[in-house]
Amino acid sequence: MPHYGFNFLWMFIWEPQRQPPPPDERALDFMAATGFNFVRVPTDYRFWTRDFDYFHPDETVFEHIDRYLEACRSRDLHMSLNLHRGPGYCINRNDLERHNLWLDPIAQDAFVFTWENFARRYAGVASRHLSFDLLNEPPNIGQYGLTRENHAALIRRTVAAIRAIDPEREVVIDGLGGGHLAMPELADLSVIHSGRGYQPMPVSHHGAQWWSGHEHAPAPIYPGLIWEGHTWNRDTLRKFYQPWREVEAAGANVHIGEFGCYNQTPNDVALRWFADLFSVFKEFGWGYALWNFAGDFGIVEHGRPGARYEQLHGYNVDRDLLDLLIESRVSA
Questions:
Q1: What would the DSSP string read from start to end of 176-205?
Q2: Contact call for residues 100 and 147 (beta carbons, < 8 A)
Q3: Global pTM value
Q4: What is the CA radius of gyration of the chain?
Q5: Residue 118, H or E segment
Q6: CA end-to-end span of the chain, whole Å?
Q7: pLDDT, tens only, 210-253
Q8: Which of 18, 76, 120, 281 is the most buried (most CB within 10 A)?
Q9: Which residues contact 245 (CB under 8 A, 6 or more apart)?
Q10: How many CB atoms lie within 10 A of CB 229?
Q11: Which domains, and CATH codes, for the chain?
Q12: Distance between CA atoms of 184 and 33, rounded to whole angstroms?
């Protein structure tokens, strides 16, 4: 069975004096009871690093990750450990970084060191329970000095370093351009290629002030939204993922590590879009992880006007969205 589940923001953004919370065991129980099997944990390296001293982490912080992993393993859920903010890069507030991941050797060395550290810590944990998702949503080509060549070189170096310690560890790499652009140059690397399910952005991110395009985006309608030279419908979605299908045809596995719809989009529009998106993922046999579980993009009390909620396993759940999620899953 492909991996289906949710992103959990337990260690998502570091703030001074903030400790990571314990694993949300009630949410994990919900997942196990409803047949989901995948937990993606985006992390911020600043939880264990102070003043950019990358090579002397506070390893007591990793005990929180240990507990997340054990909570998942005890329920036979797969946990994907992700660097949402890595040394030298984050898609959110990259200006907070001192170094540049694609231009500065110290950041590259720190990035590899971080994953080597995790590889040693979790050597012996089966890949059925743990994967390493190296870097959340690298930027567009040309941004921050990233090129396809220097990014591929960094990824190959990091994967080789992990496998020198733990040869069987499952590794995940996110697409470029915020996760949307496939990387055929790495199709031979025997890693999971992680895409995104946010297109078209005026539907998924309507009213999202952190998205730079929100002010000039057209009103969210679906199907039929005209954006970036395309009229968006199910066929457009299929064409959008064609480069990912080509990477898959070259031997790679594909997973959608994030997708979702912000709660400012009208619910009927969101559900029509979700239905087409899920049907495409099901056709391709791809797993996915909704961003997130409980929150503005989630399945629990997201606040989207017009949603139909139902009490289920102690949660106020979007019943229609849950049904679509369950119907889209495929068995092994």
A1: HHHHTB--GGGTTS--EEEEEE--SHHHHT
A2: no
A3: 0.96
A4: 19
A5: helix 105-122
A6: 4
A7: 998 888 899 999 999 999 999 999 999 999 999 999 999 999 99
A8: 281
A9: 254, 284
A10: 5
A11: 4-327 (3.20.20.80)
A12: 37
